[in-house]
Amino acid sequence: MKKYILVTGASSGIGRQTVVELAKESDDYIIFASIRKREDKALVERVSKNVKGVYLDITNRTSVLKAFKFITSKTKTLDVIINSAGIVTAGPLELLNINDIKSQFEVNTFGPLFLIQTFLPILNKNGKIININSMAQTGIFPFIAPYCASKRALSILLNALNIELKNNINIKIVEINPGVVQTPIWQKSIKACFDNLKKTNNKTVLDSYQNELDILKNNAQKNQTKGLFAIDIAKLIIKIIKNKNPKTRYNIGLDSHFVFFISKLFPCDILNKLIEFKLKTLK
């Protein structure tokens, strides 16, 4: 029996790998792979005849509605929505441009929520919504606070939706919280953020954060070669799709399990002191 699946952020990273693994898993999976660049359409459709590239800018309401129109011209029912689109806004909060922080929430929070609201009416009554979240939603990571907050906000919204749904009581909303994953998101996003920080008029304050910014940059480089592989997340997604009664939340990676554990174990004051100490030892 055919299953119709929408994957956002399919141009690279976890989204791209998920499309590849889904296509390998079954010829019964018809995959709508959302991309933002015209040149990426041929690239994703090369994966399999069952992969259909869909232009979709998750921050643009008109783009989402056009994607909805395209997908409903191919099928009247979706079985799975997989949200993996995301960006990172990094840097000291006192220097970040408020518009960059707003963009962070548009991509990571408001965009996915509007997409779900748009496609929910055609989601199979036994369908699944799978959201790629992050261990960062614990909020214990300084200098990527907008990213942490955007991930936490979407987690709260979708958990509430899980409780609130009345006419779709068999729909499962599932959250995956990976630890560090080897994807280009960190390197690309942090480079963009550093470029924006250079525009600040407060050079003295920016210079005072130089050590922390160096740590952030070095971690971004390390994250491309350590931690989970995108395929690890993709394989978990397939298991969730096959599971009739998946859990609401999955933490994957030792670092993810550790971060959620300590964030619950210690009071905020002690946790903050530990983080400050860790930053000092990295100097």
Structure description:
- The mean pLDDT is 89.
- The longest helix has 22 residues, at 98-119.
- By secondary structure, this protein is of the alpha/beta class.
- The protein has a single domain (3-281), classed as 3-Layer(aba) Sandwich (Rossmann fold).
- Helix 1 links the parallel strand 1 and strand 2.
- It is 52% helix and 16% strand.
- The N and C termini lie far apart (57 Å).
- Helix 3 runs parallel beside helix 4 (98-119), helix 4 (98-119) packs parallel to helix 5 and helix 6 (185-197) packs antiparallel against helix 8.
- Strands 3-2-1-4-5-6-7 form a seven-stranded parallel sheet, with helices on both faces.
Please, how many domains?
1
CATH class descriptor: Alpha Beta
Low-confidence stretches: none
Number of strands: 7
From the alpha carbons, calculate the radius of gyration and give it in angstroms: 19 Å
Shape: globular
The main sheet comes to:
7 strands, parallel
Bin the strand percentage.
15-25%
Main β-sheet, spatial strand arrangement: 3-2-1-4-5-6-7
Percent of residues in helices? 40-55%
Name of the CATH architecture: 3-Layer(aba) Sandwich
Structural class: alpha/beta
| Whole-number mean pLDDT | 89
Through-space gap between termini: 57 Å
